Write the structure tokens for this entry.
Amino acid sequence: MQTEKKVLDADILIVGYGPVGAALGCLLGKYDIQALVIDVEADVLEHPRAIALDNEALRILQMTGLPEDSFEKVVLPKVRMWSQYFSDFSEINTTGSINGHPKLVTFFQPELERALRKQVGQCSSVQTMVSTELVSYDEHYDHIEALLRTSEGEHLKVRCRYLVGADGAKSMVRKSIGLAFTGKSHAEDWLIIDALNAPKSIDHLEFICDHRRPGPHMVAPGGRQRWEFMLHPGEDPKQMLRDESIAKLLAPWGSLSEITIERKAIYRSHSRCAKEFSRGRVFLVGDAAHITPPFAGQGLVAGLRDAANLAWKFSWVLKGRSPEAVLKTYSQERRPHAKAMILLARMMGKLVMPTNAVAAILTHGPVRASRLLPGLRRLTEEAQVKPANQFKKGFFLSTPKGAPAICGGQLSQQLVRKSDGEIVLSDDLFSQDFSLVGFGVDPLSNLSAEKRKMLEGAGISSFYVYSRGGNAGSAGSENSADNALEDIADNFVSRDSRGWVALVRPDCVVMGIDRIENLEVLLHKTKKYFLTASSAAVNNIAFA
């Protein structure tokens, strides 16, 4: 007699417990969503893979609740591009910070994954199962039934509302829903070497753009360095992995008797993007949705953007605050930007690996010459060629003329002082729920107590940000002391922003913005995005 399989219930089943799946688990736990994360591996893979994060990625990790010191980072001051014909033909300035985080850091991926898993472990609504694989699933009109198998051969059933494939570039989940993974696999093989204790080190990221043997070189935490070398046509990958070959390549930085090789591998890069990032109740994140060449350092960063965009939408729909159609905006918002980052990486690849001397001169020469023109020099040195994380279509309103922030773009993060004197980064407050943020004006000042209560019932918090050294009550604030915030650096409240109110999503993207006198009109415009009690509350605020 066959025994009945154990049945588990979850709102979200995440297949894949790498950094993107773990980050998504953290965010769902933050919003108190019941999630189950599974992975076929028994533990974190103990070798480095992804190595670079930018300020956007660090901002998302902040949103997950990950403590700043939970994993080691090396802050890189610059990205240097070197050519045998023009020497340092381009340099990107990565000193300083954006939105409270360094512009560029390197890290050790296993350490980050362990930190994220530890954070997941603090989320009471999130369960994890390692050494467990997804066997199959059936999609129904209002749920999914999935069959899992553990390494011991036990079969389990999971009933969930939605399934997320965070299972990498060879995603079984993506294949199961039949989404094309369009793009190309590049012809070049690369040898990647992660090493410890090299006598000669650097403090930055450099690209050796020599057509004879191009590749990046960078420093990483724990005394690590990474080199990547492009293999020539006809070179035997197995031969290139031998110590004698590696010794020749690393000779400028030391001998193998001094250097400890931590990892060596041959890889081939790909530029691919799924036709859509979801189908029905199944969603894709990270490498399951898109893969990019490594030259822009955006592979993992793009996956973290996916997690931040999707998590709060799941929360809002599952809590009955927004219609299920809102989930369609995930692909609508994320896919164009993911494709833009792939194009940037391919453009960087053309600079890094010219095919011959003529191509190197024709490619690197104009870039070197552009440094003589201040406008073009700023474009490259300040990394302004990087596509802004800003959406053209999705879950937001149009931007009114003269607005100090763009709808569909992220609100900048600033330091603010709470009434108890604690200084915090603004995302720690604005990323919990929808937030109505008034700049130099209390967004509740024109609303009755009843309407303010309705706003709270709609799941929208309110904040009054006042100028440095100002008085929280100077604008007739109706906010509680906890919601009045002093703008420490006067970056939020300026002449241009004073009197404006922004409706900010939990991922800190501006959904709508208008002047305080148009607040009711702004709220009315958002009603199509909300359901039931939330919709009624917003409508009552606007028309009562």
In short: The radius of gyration is 25 Å. The chain has a mean pLDDT of 92.
